[in-house]
Amino acid sequence: MDEQSLFRWIFIAIFVITFSLSGYFRRQARRSGEVIRRAREGRGMVVLRLLFAAPFYVSILAYMINPAWMAWSMMSVPAWLRGLAALVGLGMLPIIYRVMRSIGQNISETLLTKAHHLLVTHGPYRWVRHPLYSVATVVFVSLSIVAANWFMLTMALLLIVVISRVVIPREEAQLILKFGDAYRAYQQRTGRLVPRLYRRRAVAHK
Questions:
Q1: pLDDT 10s digits, 37-79
Q2: Top-level CATH class of 3-189?
Q3: What's the pTM?
Q4: Which residues neighbour 156 within 8 Å (Cβ) at sequence distance 6 or greater?
Q5: Using CA of residue 168, residue 180, residue 35, residue 41, what is the dihedral sign?
Q6: Is 79 left (phi over 0), alpha (psi -120 to 50) or beta?
């Protein structure tokens, strides 16, 4: 097996296992809880998915089926860096399992909260409010480097911006509406995508 084929099969393994874990826990949540349709998020989120998520996933599928289809966007990446990215991507798999298991039935296809949504603060959620997004961004970037593909990397970075600037603020606004001060206190002691190095102190108003 040549180097390109090896990295392609590692790419496929990481993506398929990630997709399978996500699919399994999402199916479990659908069977045992409320399902929120994506249409309820509004037209804006649909447009964002079409502009950013869809091209990224199409490029992933194209690379897995036939790498030649993505040859136009290949970039020069040293083998050691592709290997390091592969190790990082593989290392994320048990973390993805832990995150998905921690969130349980609360996982949603949308940024809206469910009627019986619970505030999860255990497992990885003890330190980070959105560990699923954190792990996903690491996997996205890792896969792009493993594939040595600048288009995938560009779309992965754009998705990170959209998640940070659009998705998370809207999702947290919904969580504040649902949990009020309990969520605000949770925000004070945790990081958004990475653990907080220090905790904010509440300012007393006289």
A1: 666 666 777 777 778 888 999 999 999 999 999 999 999 999 9
A2: mainly alpha
A3: 0.87
A4: 56, 137, 140, 141, 143, 144
A5: negative
A6: alpha
